[in-house]
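seq as requested:
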Amino acid sequence: MQVLLFKASLSWRNLIHHRQRFVAAIFAVGFAVMLMFTQIGFRNGMLASNVAFLQLLNADLIMINSQRNITTLERTFKKTRLYQAQSLLEITGADAFYLTLATWKNEITSKERVIRVFAFNPEKNLFLLPEIEPSLNALKRADTVLTDLKSKAAYGAMEEGVSTELSGYRIKVVGNFTLGTDFIADGNLIMGDRTFFDIFSQRPSGFAGNFRKSLEDVDLGLLTVKKGTNFQQLITHLEQILPNDVHILTKQDYVAREIKFYSTATLGFIFTLGAIIGFVIGTVIVYNIITTDIKQNMVQYGTLRAIGHSSQYLLSVILLQSLFIAILGFIPGLLISILLCASLSQLTGLLIPLELHVGISIFLSTILMCLFAAIIAARRLDKIDPADIYAQKF
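struct tokens:
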């Protein structure tokens, strides 16, 4: 314990002896930590935001067109498939869910902005949002919608009672809900299926600019299942009795599939790369700082070698020094990241979570980054010759 305390004391004194370099090391590591935190935060925020509405769907299983590889890809299936699925005793509900993109007109500026539209039969709430329940009867009336109060301010007024145009069609807001934005859309609407058909059977919608031919063309089928039912066995049975033009997944598997797509095929890879770059930058900076410190304290290290301490002993001193840098640099980096992500989440409306397991991973990465840099920098200690050092000194 005395040896360890001496090493820790020596490492700490080396760090604070050059205060400017010490402060620079803390800020450098803090910057690397902030870069890793924000990049991972943006990545997780993108993934969480893009699947937020899927998590809130009132369903155990989700039926989709077998060619619909991602939710935003508009591939529909016939509503008949839902009737066929509902013939099984294990299925307690099979509801049609529609979604597309349209343009919302800001009544003040007259500017139009893309908005996402959800639609279903208002006899039943297909979202796990109790706040929608009181407005379901109002949605049965033609040309009515509910608006997401977390939509971006650029849409203008979206409160109950507002009347505006949706893709050139006059609609009225009869209620609100809260969901949030994502990388696909800056706002959301909910409407009844009849209003949905009235609007989009006459006007193109979505990325592909398709016309909705009838309400028989369903985007997602939401299946609810009796408690105690084995989901995988039920899915196998459904796929045996249904044609191969539809595919069925549990809601959890469907969400996981969406997350995989966004994390590998879109910006998810870029944010991951950004975190890796932050790790590399931190490693390089810490390496340079420790290398400089070793050069300026070569006489002291030479003295320790001369009195019998091994290279492993000197390495342990350097490693403790890097450990101090990692811990002290992580704290300001974490605090700045929390403030930055909270501000960006408030500004953009996106979910940017900083979860505990992410914090632990980045803390361990910071320690690894600093220890790795220290091991590389400490290789020059193997070549220390006390006689040469003192010859150069005197």
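The chain has two domains: 2-51+266-393, 67-243.
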